[in-house]
Fold this protein.
Amino acid sequence: MVWMKKTITLKVDAQKPDIEKIRIAAGLVRKGGLVAFPTETVYGLGADALNSKAVLALFDAKKRPLDNPPIVHVSHMRDVRRLVESVSSDGKKLMREFWPGPLTLIFRRSKIVPEVTVAGLDTIAIRMPRHNVALALIRESRCPISAPSANLAGKPSPTLAKHVLDDLKGRIDAVLDAGPTKIGVESTVLDLTVNPPQVLRPGGTPFELLKKAIDRVELNPVVTAEKPLRVEKARSPGVKHKHYAPDAKVVVVEGELRDVVEKVAELTKFYKHRDSKVGVLCTDETAQCYDADVVKSLGSRSDLADVARNLFRLLREFDLERVDVIVAEGLQLQGLGLAVMNRLRKAAGYDIVKA
Ligand code: TXA
Ligand code: MG
């Protein structure tokens, strides 16, 4: 379909957004339009979750495969009740402890949810974002909002309104611009329809915190996979699709830090000899070790929050600088490192080199 929309940008304060601008955006959502908005993780592209036509348009704008359902965002606990069949005691505990925040919970869905909103599944992914702009938008729209990350399918998720416009200008109605997002990787997705509950996607809420909050919880094998795994569609629909990939080829080097530095330097030399423009994605501790065309640091290895915040922006910057190959240092799999490494391995199409 060929169509161009006029995409308006509404600049708002992240803490105290101008209610008039929120109402303009909410009016668009109520009419079945598409509005990008900031959350604490990444920017989302929102549509009325109960309007099938609007949700279909959302898939279309993102060029997203119809079998990968987006997350439904709510602003109040009571919004959950009519979307789901029931909430377990684990579910109640997690909502109390982690909402609003970067934790998405999978429940069995109720009948009022349109098929397209959940890609035909009998489950639904729900979260309450910790961001005043997102919460105000949901409240003023007076409907739950389906919102995948506001990028073209396959690209790194947007952490700035500029990233949204780079991908979706002309394809969506508006973007609420409240500056950079705080966490930088998406929410943790936890499936509560299985026993024990299972993390399907690591994200902004570390696994270690979930383990403290409920008795039993485990990681689905896809979370730590080092190669593409075949998964049952109903369990983890997003997994088989290409994700987070910049235009450049990405290679991730994993191992002990000293060996990693050596291997990254060796690969840099190798690709340079083949006339490639080489980028290295590293950390403050190692940034001086490399002689690549472009060297970018994610931040200090001792500050994984900073690393997560910078990840997607730097992947996009390498593309703007027309790098052919990105050689990335691996990080520890603890805390937010698990989410970062999951994104990096996928961005690399699982091209992992063990140092
Ligand atoms: O932080 C985030 O989660 C961001 C912001 C905008 O909230 N949203 C986001 O949405 O990352 P999206 O659509 O890009 O990712 C949704 C993930 C996908 O991996 C999808 O497969 C999974 O949630 N998902 C959605 N519904 C599901 C379901 N019923 N069962 C299992 N997984 C589901
Ligand atoms: Mg996404």
